[in-house]
Amino acid sequence: MNKTYNHGVSWEEAFGLTQGYRANDTIYISGQFSHGMDGSFVGEGDFEAQARQTLKNLDSVLAGFGVTRSNIAEMEIFLTNPEEHFEQCVTLFKEYVGDHQPAGTLVGTSGLAFPHQLIEIRAVAHTN
């Protein structure tokens, strides 16, 4: 099984990070945000579009390690406007995880890496 996973976008190497890193049976997933596999930002100004693309990118990292959403042990969600997006975020989170109930934390923050970024999600998963 892979030790690391990258989406293959140009800025991964420039920033010196990997999207996911496996240590033994644990996968540490870097904060995912709303970008296409060409590296371009998706959904500027549209929370739902950004959240769905972010979750799609999370799925790509999981698949890169041969696991699925049911292997997620913990998710940490960062929102730049939790007052406005909390309920929609919870609805999309529940839709994404289904019956699986990982540990979770939602953090309100004044900003993320990009000024138009509304959401970022990091996670920890397992391989067994």
Characterize the structure shown.
There is one protein chain. The chain is 31% helix and 27% strand. The protein has a six-stranded mixed β-sheet with strand order 1-2-3-6-4-5. Helix 2 runs parallel beside helix 3. The model has no long low-confidence stretch (mean pLDDT 95).
Element order: H for helix, E for strand:
EHEEHEHEE
Radius of gyration: 14 Å
Give the DSSP E fraction (strand runs of 2 or more residues).
25-35%
Characterize the overall form.
globular
Structure keywords:
128 residues; alpha+beta; six-stranded mixed beta sheet; 6 strands
Provide a concise account of the structure shown:
The protein has 128 residues and is an alpha+beta fold. Helix content is 31%, strand content 27%.
Task: Give the SSE map.
Elements: E1 4-5, H1 10-15, E2 20-23, E3 26-32, H2 47-64, E4 72-79, H3 82-97, E5 103-108, E6 119-126
Parallel strand pairs: 4-5
Antiparallel strand pairs: 1-2, 2-3, 3-6, 4-6
Helix pairs in contact: 2-3
